[in-house]
Design brief:
Shape of chain A: globular
Structural class of chain B: alpha/beta
Order of helices and strands of chain B: EEEHEEHEHHHEHEHEEHHH
Order of helices and strands of chain A: HHHHEHHHHEHHH
Oligomer: heterodimer
Number of domains of chain B: 1
Mean pLDDT of chain A: 92
Number of helices of chain B: 10
Structural class of chain A: mainly alpha
Strand order of the largest sheet of chain A: 1-2
Mean pLDDT of chain B: 91
Low-confidence stretches of chain A: 302-308
Shape of chain B: globular
Distance between the termini of chain B: 31 Å
CATH architecture of chain B: 3-Layer(aba) Sandwich
Largest sheet of chain A: 2 strands, antiparallel
Largest sheet of chain B: 6 strands, mixed
Radius of gyration of chain B: 19 Å
CATH topology of chain B: Rossmann fold
Helix content of chain A: over 70%
Number of strands of chain B: 10
Number of strands of chain A: 2
Strand content of chain A: under 5%
Chain lengths: 308, 265
């Protein structure tokens, strides 16, 4: 255990955290804005990478590969949206169905469970080799951070438009939205498409970063996304009220998650248990509002009554 | 303005909970009619309003608003013609959004929502003026989240939202029932004012007989999914609570046994 090895691992953790931060922003759109827990992201988090790596390997440009990967995610979101709105399947189940279906599709896209890409041979946007000792404009951390800032700016603009406002209203109060002439079904589909597009984009970055796409790379993605949303909320909710800053806090939340993860690994924690740890941490944080309401509000009510 | 012809609605068809909520209901509203709807629990008042609003589609019969057949039109498309205020103050507004954003949503009812800005500065000033008329101090809290407002304030805001973009028909579903008496009176006065000013055709459900008598130019009473009384014109003006109770007894063939309605006379 030397501090230097932890220090050396940090740039990688930050870069990975930022990439997952983009993914978490996608989760934020469904989970917080639209008030739908979308599990299809576990599938999309592989689809984006699979499409991107296959296209790059076939000689397509990096930009085109990223674009098509993003569109693939969008289509996955569309499918979940149709399951949910047009076919009346509960949102959680719709996501699970899409996720399961995507497993086969991802295998078909890649042709096998894991496909590598050579960072030396192909012009990649990001790579784990580019986190240190490279000119700053090639640095993966900077490039991903820039992507995130641009994404947040776009989302901030979008959710301020008429359509974006109606999307927020849909997540907040469906009855009211329909009474105000908002097509809530269409909005849910749009929100799911937007969210999954962002997740697939992040997946494409992740595959480039780690130098391969893997059928299991999306496993538990929703939990990491939620963890980032929750950590961001806990750390920054008191100071960040603006929508753009809230999105930023989600991105930073993912970075914190990965830095903490790195520290836990450095401390010698059994890496087999990491997912269990993540699940427990997220479970605890998700239950906090409920536990607070159930045990602490009651106690204070009783105290207030006793006071009278 | 509104023509309802022989509508039927049965819930939970084929189950033990099957309930015929509307049975052969027909109703025609003239332009500018302000109709109060009264009746006990389960009489079909809210069902009638929801049928008009399109919360679900009716089993049979037809509904036309201003000559446009909306029988099969989904709720969000019908919203173009309708202003609605719900019984529950939480239902009519988006709690996580700002006061001005809520108004901006209402101002775009029935219009295409594209990628233009969701709210402009000119709009904000316009809303400020409108909010002043509510006399609740909301004009200084444009960027407050609606969730921070009281039930009465939220209901007043919903009423303003319902009338911002002049609707062909205003639907009020016991919109003062969840409020304290003082606030309820204030909201009712405001309702009268808005209906008067914009000459709105209105359908207002109430459980309060006095309110039903004192407001509007026409009163209908419902019972068991039917309209059993329809009082308008001079007769409505002279109507008293006693008259209404007597008429109910004759029309329904039984005593009015709804506690909630008697208590509120």
């Amino acid at each position: 255990m030397n501090v230097l090895s932890l220090f050396n691992a940090m740039p990688g953790a930050v870069a990975q955290g930022l990439i997952w931060g983009i993914m978490a922003i996608g989760v934020y759109i469904t989970y917080k804005v639209l008030d739908v827990a979308d599990l299809s992201v576990d599938g999309t988090m592989c689809t984006g990478g699979a499409v991107c790596i296959v296209m790059l390997s076939n000689g397509h440009s990096m930009w085109l590969s990223l674009l098509v990967a993003t569109i693939a995610g969008m289509i996955a979101g569309l499918v979940t949206g149709i399951f949910h709105t047009a076919m009346g399947i509960p949102a959680i189940l719709s996501g699970i169905l899409t996720q399961l279906g995507l497993y086969s599709i991802n295998l078909k896209i890649m042709g096998k469970a894991n496909i590598p890409i050579n960072n030396q041979k192909y012009n990649l946007m990001v790579s784990l080799l580019n986190v240190r000792d490279v000119p700053f404009y090639k640095n993966t951390i900077l490039i991903v951070a820039l992507c995130m800032v641009i994404l947040i700016a776009c989302l901030y603009w979008f959710f301020g438009t008429e359509l974006g406002c109606s999307l927020r209203a849909t997540g907040c109060n469906e009855n009211m939205s329909r009474a105000q002439g908002i097509n809530t079904d269409l909005n849910k589909v749009l929100g799911l498409m937007l969210s999954n597009a962002i997740v697939a984009f992040s997946s494409a970055l992740l595959a480039q970063y780690q130098g391969f796409a893997d059928i299991n790379m999306g496993r538990g993605a929703i939990v990491i996304g939620l963890a980032a949303v929750i950590i961001g909320g806990v750390v920054f909710s008191k100071i960040f009220h603006n929508f753009a800053l809230k999105l930023l806090s989600v991105g930073i939340g993912a970075v914190i998650y990965y830095v903490v993860l790195q520290i836990v690994i450095w401390l010698g924690f059994d890496t087999d248990l990491l997912k269990l740890l993540s699940a427990l941490v997220v479970a605890i944080f998700l239950s906090l509002p409920y536990l607070k309401k159930r045990y602490f509000t009651k106690a204070s009510n009783v105290a207030a009554k006793g006071g009278k | 303005m509104l023509v309802i012809k022989n509508i039927y609605k049965t819930f939970n068809v084929g189950t033990i909970n099957e309930k015929t909520a509307l049975e052969d209901v027909s109703l025609t509203l003239e332009d500018g009619d302000f109709v109060t709807v009264i009746g006990g629990n389960g009489a079909g008042k809210s069902t009638l309003l929801n049928a008009i609003a399109g919360t679900w589609l009716v089993d049979s019969g037809s509904i036309a608003i201003d000559g446009i057949d909306v029988t099969k039109t989904p709720e969000f498309k019908r919203a173009k013609y309708l202003g609605r205020v719900f019984q529950d103050p939480m239902l009519g507004t988006a709690a996580n959004m700002q006061i001005d954003e809520n108004l901006a949503l209402a101002a775009r009812r029935g219009k295409f929502r594209g990628l233009r800005s969701g709210i402009s500065q000119a709009e904000r000033n316009f809303y400020k003026e409108h909010l002043k008329t509510l006399d609740l101090g909301l004009e200084d809290r444009l960027s407050s989240k609606v969730g921070l407002l009281s039930g009465g304030q939220r209901q007043a805001l919903t009423l303003l939202m319902a009338s911002l973009e002049k609707p062909k028909l205003l639907l009020l579903d016991e919109h003062t029932a969840a409020l304290d008496p003082k606030t309820a009176a204030k909201i009712l006065a405001k309702t009268d004012e808005i209906v008067e000013k914009d000459h709105l055709t209105t359908l207002m459900i109430t459980h309060n007989m006095k309110d039903a008598i004192h407001h509007g130019n026409r009163l209908i009473m419902m019972d068991g999914g039917h309209i059993i009384l329809d009082i308008k014109g001079e007769e409505k003006k002279k109507l008293t609570v006693e008259d209404l109770l007597a008429k109910f007894a004759i029309a329904s063939g039984g005593e009015l046994d709804n506690d909630r309605m008697i208590l509120s006379k």
